[in-house]
């Protein structure tokens, strides 16, 4: 079993000569959840793309390092804002897509168990077009969890879910990824304060560490310390605008 590494991102990013953020110093500790927040356009998804080695339409002057000195590629699972489901495949076929693309024999029993855990067993023979937006997002989560990578990047993975389902999926994903290095991009202070071991706030001036509640995650939705923390974080984010 591969040990999950810590990751650091340091530097500045420019688009067409204009700074998107400068002086970022983002630390993503090993084996825990780091939540990245910031106003729209601050560059949160750009950070994910930098970590993934994807095109960013800009210039990054800085470094991305892992604690074990190995690259991120080949040991990361990524869930984008859009579900990226293949419309001609069934639910089960979408969940095992990674294995098929790698030429591996897919674990159908495991895939169907994961589909059950996200509450979609009754729909597994359907195509994605027959699902609601929230159901599609749950399917994309199932596909991400199937990969069992030591590093996991999640970009707004719960945004299309109703409040009850969102809490259920947060619990599930936290359980499955309990020993992974996870970076979650979110706009939701309550989500960050419930799930995170570490919180960072991104702005044009870089990244800032935000204190998390002393209670270990996953925190109860009505935990007083968590409620105070999310209220303070929301106030801070509103003021940063």
List keywords for this structure.
241 residues, alpha/beta, Rossmann fold, 6-stranded mixed β-sheet, 3-stranded antiparallel β-sheet, 33% helix, 24% strand, globular
Overall SS class: alpha/beta
Summed up, the domain count is 2
> Which topology of the largest domain does CATH recognise?
Rossmann fold
Q: Would you identify the CATH architecture of the largest domain?
A: 3-Layer(aba) Sandwich
* Head-to-tail CA distance between termini: 43 Å
Q: Could you estimate the helical fraction of the residues in percent?
A: 25-40%
Task: Figure out the total of helices.
Answer: 8
| Strands side by side in the biggest sheet | 5-6-7-3-8-9
- Determine the strand fraction and express it as a percent band: 15-25%
Shape: globular
Outline the structure in words.
This protein has about 240 residues and is α/β, with parallel strands linked by helices. It has 2 domains: about 150 residues, Rossmann fold (3-Layer(aba) Sandwich); about 70 residues. About 35% of the residues lie in helices and about 25% in strands. It is built from 8 helices and 9 strands. Strands 5-6-7-3-8-9 form a 6-stranded mixed β-sheet, with helices on both faces. A 3-stranded antiparallel β-sheet has the order 2-1-4, covered by helices on one side. Helix 4 packs across helix 5. It starts with 6 loop residues before the first strand and ends with a helix. The model has no long low-confidence stretch (mean pLDDT about 95).
């Amino acid at each position: 079993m591969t040990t999950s590494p810590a990751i650091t991102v340091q530097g500045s990013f420019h688009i067409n000569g204009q700074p998107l953020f400068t002086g970022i110093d983002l630390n993503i500790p090993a084996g825990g959840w780091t939540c990245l927040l910031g106003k729209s356009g601050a560059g949160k998804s750009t950070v994910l793309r930098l970590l993934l080695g994807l095109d960013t339409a800009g210039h990054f002057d800085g470094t991305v390092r892992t604690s074990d000195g190995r690259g991120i590629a080949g040991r990361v699972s990524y869930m984008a804002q859009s579900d990226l489901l293949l419309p001609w495949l069934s639910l089960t076929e979408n969940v095992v897509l990674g294995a098929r693309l790698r030429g591996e024999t897919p674990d159908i029993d495991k895939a169907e168990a994961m589909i059950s855990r996200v509450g979609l067993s009754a729909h597994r023979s359907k195509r994605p077009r027959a699902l609601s937006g929230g159901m599609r997002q749950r399917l994309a989560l199932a596909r991400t969890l199937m990969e069992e990578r030591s590093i996991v990047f999640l970009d707004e993975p719960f945004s299309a879910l109703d409040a009850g389902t969102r809490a259920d999926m947060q619990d599930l994903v936290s359980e499955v990824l309990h020993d992974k290095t996870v970076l979650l991009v979110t706009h939701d202070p309550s989500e960050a304060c419930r799930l995170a071991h570490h919180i960072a706030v991104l702005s044009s001036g870089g990244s800032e560490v935000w204190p998390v509640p002393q209670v270990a995650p996953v925190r109860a939705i009505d935990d007083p310390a968590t409620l105070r923390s999310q209220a303070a974080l929301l106030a801070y984010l509103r003021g940063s605008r």
